[in-house]
Amino acid sequence: xxxxxxxxxxxxxxxxCNDDPGQDADYSTGVPGTFQSNIVLSDYNNQPxxxxxxxxxxxxxxxxxxxxxxxxASNDSYTQSDAVTYxxxxxxxxxxxxxxxxxxxxxxxxxxxxxxxxxxxxSTAYIDLTEFPFGDGEFWSNTANISNTAEAWGFDFTYGSxxxxxxxxxxxxxxxxxxGTMPVRSFSDFNNGTVKDNLTGLVWQKCSxxxxxxxxxxxxxxGSITSHNFVSALVTCRNLNLAGRTWRLPNVHELRSLLxxxxxxxxxxxxxxxxxxxxxxxxxxxxxxxxxxIFRVNFTDAVIGTTNLSTSNYVxxxxxxx
Length: 322
Known about the structure:
four-stranded antiparallel β-sheet, Mannose-Binding Protein A, Chain A, single chain, alpha+beta, PF07603 family protein
């Protein structure tokens, strides 16, 4: 099982968490980030790496253009095709042994890149700058936008959001990775209105809030989907009576794990297990930030962004595996 890392938020939007329970800071879900940073392997001075013990991935400690153990100099930005070449060229270093004596360097997929994000210090950056110095800014992934193959996905660690940009005309920073690819996702339908993500162990509400599941109609086509502001979303999940479980509003790491960037459907989520997810699909998360904003995931265009606390969004609740 691939345990999601905790989103890392430690403060509630409201002064006291118990004013509106169910915010991300109320829970310690997932596992803490488990990075070993600035590791210099023998015989490879000034070629540091960071190892993620949770995913097994090895990252280049410094971003493109930086060097040495302190990541001196500023980041260099590239088009996406040049970013692919930059990472591939790391494999030719050290007489073909690879940067830091490691082969298999490549541009990360968007799901891999997003595993580096944290919401612990949103006023600074959505990445731990101790583990990844000067890691704020936009970074390319290798994942093409299936709806527009002239574009590819990137992640902006300054704002904690992803975006799709033209591969040839847009420049972003680069952080290369080595290691196996992310496990293939799979789901199990418990036939009681809940679905388990076998990769993360999380159990999800099959239907969106407002829709009803029944044995006679398991396609979530009874009732009408409802939208909720932030406080109402927290209450909706907290009060959900389904399958004898305790429910909560998912944090942004959890909700975005349902995004499927390979789909061409109107909603970038597995419709077999989450049927009747609307084509216009903006769902709230439990993560808030200063400025009366919360994070939400848009399953229409696979974009993670922010919106006002008062904005109404759809809701899909989550429960921890028992």
